[in-house]
Amino acid sequence: MNAIETRKMTKSYGKARGIIDLDLVVSQGEIFGFIGPNGAGKSTTIKTLLNFIHPTMGSAEILGMDVVKDTVRIKKEIGYIPSEVSYYDDMTAKQLLDYSAGFYGKDCTARRKQLCELLGVEVGRKIEDLSLGNRKKVAIVQALQHSPAVIILDEPTSGLDPLVQARFFEIIREENQRGATVFFSSHILNEVQRICHRVGIIREGRLVQVDAVETLRASQYKKVKLQSSLPEGIGLINLPGVQEQANHGRFTEFLFGGDIKELLQAISSMTVEDIWIEDPSLEEIFMHYYERGEGK
Amino acid sequence: MRIFSRELKRNLKAFLVWTISMSLFIAMIIAFYPSIADNAVDYAKMLDQLPKAMLSAFNLDTLSLADPLGFYGTEAYVLVLLFASVYAVQLGAGILSKEEDERTIEFLLSKPISRGQIVWEKIWSVFFYLTLFNVVVSGITYVGLEIVKREAYNVATLSYLFLGAYVVQLVFAALGLLISVFVTKAKSILPLSIGIVLSSYITSVMAKMSARVEFFKYLTPFSYADAGEIINTGAPQAGYMVLSLALILAAVLGTFYFYERKDITA
After folding, report:
1. Which of A6, A21, B71, B168 shows its CA 20 to 30 Å from the CA of A101?
2. Which long-range contacts (CB under 8 A, 24 or more apart) does A113-120 make?
């Protein structure tokens, strides 16, 4: 039995595309990253899995249960953190957590206390008065306090400061070691690489690739930009891994997929005045890597 | 029970505001009764000058202002029913849509509870408050009339008036509930509620004023509890009550049906 399995799952909104023929398998016990640019269909996938919306065609199962027919049973096993947190204004964090816990019919107080301490949640405050990041923390506690078997995260780190993000990833890793399966949707490649075992990439509603994270990392490109001290620029760089080099005057831009040490050595002998090395955006990775893979 | 009690808490303030202001309003109108009853002959003369259709629209052709029931039926009942219906339709329309408007529905739907159960408990909370509202408002009316009455009146008929008003409010609440499956923006709900109630009221007045559009009376809940009819015949028409119950049932079942199937994207 898989934690999550979709079969030709399709959701269309009238004429607009949602997701198309999504075949996705997430095994139990893994942390599965689900990445794609904004509007690719990540949230649509999650909303279908949670039965907020109904699939137009195809089907999906969570822990062997049908997402439409067995949605109540499924939800006993799920913890969900939405990308945008909206809770009842009149409740305090504690009241919300109590309300949430009540639906599961089990005692969550011990785990809640741990989580609140780890994340620094002020339970006595009204949710209305909390900042975006603090609301997100409440959402995390709300989703994890009942120790769910499957954790579904929709862009969970937005609004969290780096320190809390690190805590959050630690917590997710612990949950995973406890046995929980994690489905992690994000448009930030970096954070998915940090924590996930496997990664699925969605683009324009279709799943284009599923890879182990190592594979993705090996194929990771860097975006490099150099500024020469000479007006005529650097000229052609002859190094394995340099792609799509473009020169404009003093500036040279290229994607680099080779050994970073070799690159640094090569650069050190050039007439370089300034340097930028960045992770390419997800879109750029699609453009330069996955599109070719798709075109095979 | 979890959602039911949550809704009780959440709608308590609106309930108190509506109940208290309605009670004060009724007390105020009833306080006018003694002076009107004392001058009933003069009022009757004055009313005779008005066009017949108009008198019939306000039940002044068949009811007497001097009689406590006639006074209540003509001076208070319609207004009370109008306001109470706005409360009812708003309460019904807000109960489901509020979760979507405030985007809390994703939280609720991610919990192990079925949509049917959510709708069920929310409907009960509407029913609870509307019933309590009617008990209090009817109680105040009864006590008020008892205090000011100059002559005896039929208490059974008065309770039929109360019952009629209650049923009409339930119809409006059920309609509001059904509409709110499709219209979820809070800022559309209030104008829509008032619009529905007012147009229903105007339709019922038209049905009474002109024989040609008399059939309109079946289209508007206001005709189902007409003070003139109830006071003159002593009870609401069974046909109307059956029609009301059928409407309520249809709207509630429709709400379950469509809510279960709708895509909820807060």
Report:
1. A6
2. A115/A140, A115/A141, A115/A144, A115/A145, A115/A171, A116/A141, A118/A167, A118/A170, A118/A171, A119/A164, A119/A167, A119/A168, A119/A171, A120/A164
User: Measured between alpha carbons, how far is residue B260 from residues B172, B174, B253 in Å?
Assistant: 22, 17, 11
**Closest partner CB to A87 (pick from B10, B107, B111):** B107
Q: What is the pLDDT of residues A85-110, one digit of tens each?
A: 999 988 999 999 999 999 998 899 99
Q: How close are the terminal C-alpha atoms of chain B, in Å?
A: 24
Mean of the per-residue pLDDT values for chain A?
88
* Cα gap A274→A263, rounded to integer Å: 15
Q: Checking DSSP bridges between strand A31-35 and strand A181-186, what pairing results, if any? A: parallel
Distances from the Cα of B109 to the Cα of A82, A100, A210, A251, A253, angstroms: 12, 11, 29, 53, 48
Residue A90 with chain B: CB contacts under 8 Å:
10
Q: How far apart are CA B107 and CA B112, in angstroms?
A: 11
Prediction pTM value: 0.86
**Token match 């699925």: residue?**
A200
Domain ranges of chain B: 2-261
Among A49, A67, A72, A106, the residue to mutate for chain B (most B Cβ within 10 A)? A72
**Residue spans of chain B under pLDDT 70:** 266
Q: Measured between alpha carbons, how far is B88 from B169 in angstroms, rounded to an integer?
A: 6
Angstrom distance (rounded) from CA A227 to CA A234: 8
Task: Write phi, then psi, for A294 (nearest 5 degrees).
Answer: -70, -35
- Assign B225 to helix, strand or coil: coil
